[in-house]
Structure to design on (912 residues):
C-alpha cells in the first residue's frame, strides 16, 4: 500500500486524465439505448447470437428498418423510446422465412389500432413478405414491452421481443409524473430465457419436431447477452446481433432506475447486491394510492421476482451509508478540497457536516431517512457519507503476495484508489470501482448451457465521483 | 396405491349429533356433486382421462329446486357454486363414483364439519372426512362463507386428485349490489386457469400412477407428480380455439373472477385495456391496482374489474397466459395458436331491447320477448318472409293476405293476437328485403 501522506486525489487525477482518453467525455447523463419515436419501422428477420459458453444460435428478432437504422436483427429488439402523449406507429414487415408463418406484435398496456395485415388470434399479422401497422397513443408514462403475438410460444422464444420506454411529461429525468420517480441514471433490463433445442430444430427446419409445451430453458439473458458478455460495451462489433449491454455504472448516491422488462416465460428472483431496492412502478403504473400521492405504495426488498409479460420500475442507490469506514481512505483531520475532483466544485469534502454534533458518546442520534436533516449526512457534491469521513479502514491489509485476487479487484479496497496487482493479474477494474453482482437468485440460472459462470448475472459498478460516466 | 387404508371414523354418537346439527341449519343452499371419471377432449384430438364433479342437484335457500339432473356429466372444472349474498351457509352433498375415496374442501373457508382425516399408516391421506368410493353420500357444510372468489378442490391426496380435475370455483357476492364493498358490477365471468400433464392422467386412469418406470426404455419417465410436465393449458376446461366466455354487453363493469386450479403459476394478461384488480384470494385490496396482467399462483384467485365502454361496434377482448410457452396444444396449433387463450365478446344491443345483437333474433327491431313462432331464428317482428325464401316478396304478400284477419301466429308479426293492419305495415317495411337481420338465424 502507498503511504497515506500521498495526495490520493492527485494520483487519481493523473489516472483519470488517462481514463478520459479511453472513455471520452460527455456532459449529459446517458439516455437508454434505443430508437426514438414516435414512428418506427421494424422488420422481423433472422440472425445468429453468441452465448457465453461459446455457442451460436439462430434467432428471429426485430431490426430497425428506418432510414437511420442498421436493419440488423437484434436480440432483444430495439428499445422503443417515446414521450407521453405521442401517437406511436409501428410498421412491422415480415422478412422471416416462410416456415415461420405470419408474425405480429402485441403491446400489453396500450390501446392499439391496426391497419393492413391479415387477422390473427391476438392481433393483425404480417404474412410472409407482408406488413402491418400498429398505432397507439402513449397516454401513460412508464416501462412497457412488445413481443410477437403470433404463435407466441415459438416466436417469443425465438427472440421477437423488446422494451418500450414512455417518458412522462415531466421530462426524461422521471419515470412517472412525480418527484418520487426522479432518477439520475436509468437502465433497461430485458430478461429472457432460451431452450436451445427449439433453436436447433428451427435451424434444421425440423418444425414438426418443435414442442414448446416441453419447454426447458438452459440459458438466461440480460439484454440478450449472457454474463460476462453483458459487461462489454453497447454495440461492440463482436456481438452484432446483441447490441445492448447490461452493466450499470454509477456514482455514489445517484438514484438509479432499473426498468425491468420480463418478456420470456419464466419467473426470476432478480437480486440486487449493494443495497435494497425500492419498487416504485409495475406494469406501467406508479405504485400509488391515488392521484398525486406519489410512490406511497412502493415496497422495498433485496429481490424482486420478474413476472413474464410484466415490467417493473426499480430504484436503487448506493452511498456507503453506515459502512463504518471511509471508502476513499480520507485521513482524520485532513482537508480534501472538492476541486481536486471537479474544478467547479468549491470547499472541502464533508465541510457541510459537523461531526461534533454527532460524537459517538453523545445522545444525539443521526437523522434517519425522511428527516429534513438527513441530507446533511452526505457531501452535496460527492455524496460521501460524512459520519464515516476520515474513519480508517478497520482491517490491516495483508501483503500483496498473501492475497489471491479476483479479476475485478483493483489492488485496493478504496473506491477510485490505487494498488498493486500481482504480475499477470487481468486488472479488469482500472478505475477501482466497487462491483456489485446483480443476478437471478435461482442459482442454476447463473449458467450458460451448463457452463458457470454465465447466464443471468451482471455487475453494477459504483465508480469514484471523478470517474466520468457516459 | 394399494396400501392398507385405515380410516379413523368418528364415533356413532358424534355422527348422530353432527347430523342433527346439519339438519337444524335449514335454509342453506345445497349443491349435490358427484365425483366421477370423465375425459378432457383437447383440440388436437387427444382425449385425456380426468376426474370431475357433476352438479346433479341444486336447492336454494328457500327450498326451491334450481336444478335436478341425476344424469349430469362430470366437468373439469366443476360448474361454479354460487353462495347467495343473503345466505352465508353452503352445503355440499358429495357422491363418490371414483375408483378411490375422495373428499372436498374450499381453500380460505372454514369447513364446519371437517370430521376426521384419513391416514394411510402414519401418513395423512385426506384433510377431512372422506366420501368412500361407491359409498354413501358425504355431507360438507360451510357456515359463514366469506364473500369472494374461492376454489373447492379435493382434500384427498390433492397432489393426485386435484390435477385429475376435482376442482370448482365457489363465489359469493358481499351484498345484493356489490361483489366487495364499493365494487359494483353489472356482470361477472369466471376464468379458471388449469394445466394438464396427459401422461400422469393416463397413468392414473390405467392404475399406473407412481409406478416406476412406465417405459422401461425411459427410466426418467415416472408417472407421478414430482415429474409432472404440463402440456395442455386450459381456461375453464377448454384449450384454444375451443375456449369460450359468455358474451357481455357494452357500457358495463364486468367482474372477472380468476382462479388458478393448475399446479403451475399462470399470468393472465389482457390486451388493449387495463383491468382494475380489486381482490386477491377473496380479500379486497385497500387500494385497487390498475394492471394489464398479474401473477396468479397455484390455488390463488384474483378479482378484476373490466370496464367496457359503450360503443356502436362489437369489441372482442383477448385474455391469455403471458407465459406464452403455454399457448399451444402439446406443441400443436389449431388456427394459429392454442392453449390458454380466450376471447370475451363485448356486444352491442342496437335496438336496446335487452338482447345483445349476437343473440337477438331481430337486431334492429326491439323485441324483448324474442317471439319466433316459426322457429327459423328470425323473430316475428322482423320476419314477414312467410315462405322462408330469404326475401320478402309478392308470394309472402299473397300468403299474408290470405291470413289477414285470422290468428295465424306466423303472420301476426307484432304478436297482438290477430293479423291486422299493424302487421301489414311491418310487411310493407320489409318488402323487397330479406328478413332480420338476426344474430341467431343461420
Amino acid at each position: 500500500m502507498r503511504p497515506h501522506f500521498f495526495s490520493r486525489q492527485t494520483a487519481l487525477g493523473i489516472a483519470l486524465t488517462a481514463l478520459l482518453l479511453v472513455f471520452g467525455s460527455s456532459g449529459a447523463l446517458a439516455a437508454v439505448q434505443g430508437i426514438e419515436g414516435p414512428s418506427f419501422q421494424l422488420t422481423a428477420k433472422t440472425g445468429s447470437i453468441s452465448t457465453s459458453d461459446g455457442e451460436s444460435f439462430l434467432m428471429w428478432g426485430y431490426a430497425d428498418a428506418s432510414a437511420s437504422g442498421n436493419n440488423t436483427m437484434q436480440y432483444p429488439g430495439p428499445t422503443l423510446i417515446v414521450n407521453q402523449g405521442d401517437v406511436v406507429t409501428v410498421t412491422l414487415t415480415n422478412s422471416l422465412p416462410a416456415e415461420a408463418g405470419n408474425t405480429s406484435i402485441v403491446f400489453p398496456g396500450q390501446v392499439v389500432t391496426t391497419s393492413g395485415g391479415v387477422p390473427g388470434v391476438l392481433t393483425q399479422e404480417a404474412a410472409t413478405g407482408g406488413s402491418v401497422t400498429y398505432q397507439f397513443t402513449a397516454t401513460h408514462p412508464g416501462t412497457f414491452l412488445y413481443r410477437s403475438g403470433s404463435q407466441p410460444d415459438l416466436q417469443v422464444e425465438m427472440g421477437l421481443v423488446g422494451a418500450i420506454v414512455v417518458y412522462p411529461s415531466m421530462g426524461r429525468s422521471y419515470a412517472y409524473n412525480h418527484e418520487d420517480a426522479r432518477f439520475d441514471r436509468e437502465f433497461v433490463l430485458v430478461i429472457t430465457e432460451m431452450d436451445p433445442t427449439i433453436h436447433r430444430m428451427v435451424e434444421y427446419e425440423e418444425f414438426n419436431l418443435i414442442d414448446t409445451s416441453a419447454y426447458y430453458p438452459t440459458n438466461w439473458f440480460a439484454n440478450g447477452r449472457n454474463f460476462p458478455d453483458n459487461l462489454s460495451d453497447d454495440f461492440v462489433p463482436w456481438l452484432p446481433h446483441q447490441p445492448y449491454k447490461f452493466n450499470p455504472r454509477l456514482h455514489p448516491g445517484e438514484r438509479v432506475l432499473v426498468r425491468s422488462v420480463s418478456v420470456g416465460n419464466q419467473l426470476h428472483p432478480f437480486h440486487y447486491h449493494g443495497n435494497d431496492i425500492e419498487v416504485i412502478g409495475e406494469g406501467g403504473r406508479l405504485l400509488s394510492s391515488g392521484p398525486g400521492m406519489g410512490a406511497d405504495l412502493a415496497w422495498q426488498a433485496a429481490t424482486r421476482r420478474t413476472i413474464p409479460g410484466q415490467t417493473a420500475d426499480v430504484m436503487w442507490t448506493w452511498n456507503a451509508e453506515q459502512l463504518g469506514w471511509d471508502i476513499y481512505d480520507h485521513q482524520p483531520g485532513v482537508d480534501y478540497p472538492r476541486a481536486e475532483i471537479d474544478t467547479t466544485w468549491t470547499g472541502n469534502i464533508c465541510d457541510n457536516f459537523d461531526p461534533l454534533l454527532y460524537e459517538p458518546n453523545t445522545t444525539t442520534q443521526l437523522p434517519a431517512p425522511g428527516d429534513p436533516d438527513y441530507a446533511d449526512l452526505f457531501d452535496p457534491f460527492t455524496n460521501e457519507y460524512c459520519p464515516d469521513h476520515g474513519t480508517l479502514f478497520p482491517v490491516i491489509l495483508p501483503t500483496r503476495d498473501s492475497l489471491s485476487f479476483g479479476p475485478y479487484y483493483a489492488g485496493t479496497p478504496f473506491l477510485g484508489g490505487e494498488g498493486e496487482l500481482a504480475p499477470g493479474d487481468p486488472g479488469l477494474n482500472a478505475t477501482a470501482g466497487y462491483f456489485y453482482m446483480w443476478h437471478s437468485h435461482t442459482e442454476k440460472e447463473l449458467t450458460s448451457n451448463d457452463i458457470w459462470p454465465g447466464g443471468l448475472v451482471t455487475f453494477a459498478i459504483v465508480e469514484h465521483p471523478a470517474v466520468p460516466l457516459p | 396405491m394399494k396400501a392398507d387404508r385405515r380410516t379413523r371414523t368418528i364415533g356413532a354418537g358424534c355422527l348422530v349429533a353432527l347430523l342433527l346439527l346439519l339438519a337444524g341449519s335449514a335454509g342453506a343452499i345445497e349443491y349435490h356433486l358427484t365425483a366421477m371419471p370423465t375425459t378432457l377432449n383437447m383440440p388436437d384430438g387427444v382425449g385425456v382421462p380426468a376426474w370431475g364433479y357433476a352438479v346433479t342437484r341444486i336447492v336454494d335457500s328457500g327450498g326451491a329446486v334450481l336444478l335436478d339432473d341425476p344424469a349430469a356429466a362430470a366437468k373439469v372444472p366443476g360448474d361454479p357454486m354460487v353462495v347467495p349474498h343473503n345466505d352465508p351457509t353452503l352445503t355440499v352433498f358429495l357422491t363418490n363414483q371414483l375408483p378411490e375415496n375422495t373428499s372436498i374442501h374450499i381453500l380460505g373457508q372454514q369447513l364446519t364439519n371437517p370430521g376426521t382425516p384419513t391416514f394411510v399408516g402414519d401418513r395423512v391421506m385426506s384433510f377431512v372426512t372422506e366420501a368412500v368410493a361407491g359409498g354413501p353420500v358425504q355431507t360438507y357444510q360451510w357456515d359463514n362463507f366469506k364473500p369472494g372468489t374461492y376454489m373447492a378442490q379435493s382434500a384427498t391426496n390433492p397432489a393426485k386428485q386435484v390435477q385429475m380435475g376435482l376442482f370448482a370455483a365457489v363465489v359469493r357476492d358481499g351484498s345484493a349490489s356489490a361483489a366487495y364493498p364499493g365494487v359494483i358490477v353489472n356482470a361477472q365471468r369466471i376464468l379458471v386457469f388449469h394445466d394438464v400433464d396427459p401422461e400422469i392422467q393416463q397413468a392414473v386412469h390405467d392404475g399406473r400412477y407412481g409406478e416406476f418406470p412406465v417405459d422401461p426404455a425411459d427410466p426418467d419417465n415416472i408417472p407421478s407428480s414430482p415429474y409432472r410436465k404440463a402440456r395442455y393449458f386450459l381456461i375453464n376446461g377448454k384449450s384454444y380455439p375451443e375456449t369460450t366466455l359468455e358474451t357481455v354487453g357494452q357500457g358495463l363493469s364486468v367482474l372477472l373472477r380468476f382462479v388458478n386450479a393448475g399446479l403451475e403459476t399462470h399470468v393472465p394478461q389482457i390486451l388493449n385495456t387495463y383491468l382494475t384488480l380489486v381482490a386477491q384470494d377473496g380479500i379486497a385490496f385497500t387500494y385497487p391496482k390498475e394492471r394489464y396482467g398479474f401473477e396468479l399462483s397455484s390455488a390463488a384467485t384474483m378479482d378484476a374489474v373490466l370496464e367496457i365502454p359503450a360503443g356502436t361496434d362489437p369489441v372482442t377482448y383477448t385474455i391469455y397466459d403471458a407465459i406464452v410457452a403455454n399457448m399451444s396444444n402439446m406443441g400443436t396449433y389449431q388456427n394459429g395458436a392454442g392453449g390458454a387463450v380466450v376471447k370475451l365478446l363485448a356486444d352491442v344491443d342496437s335496438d336496446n331491447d335487452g338482447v345483445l345483437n349476437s343473440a337477438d333474433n331481430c337486431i334492429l327491431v326491439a323485441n324483448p320477448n324474442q317471439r319466433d313462432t316459426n322457429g327459423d331464428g328470425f323473430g316475428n317482428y322482423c320476419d314477414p318472409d312467410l315462405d322462408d325464401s330469404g326475401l320478402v316478396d309478392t308470394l309472402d304478400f299473397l300468403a299474408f293476405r290470405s291470413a289477414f284477419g285470422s290468428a295465424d301466429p306466423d303472420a301476426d308479426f307484432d304478436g297482438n293476437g290477430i293479423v291486422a293492419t299493424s302487421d301489414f305495415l311491418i310487411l310493407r317495411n320489409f318488402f323487397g328485403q330479406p328478413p332480420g337481420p338476426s344474430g341467431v338465424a343461420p
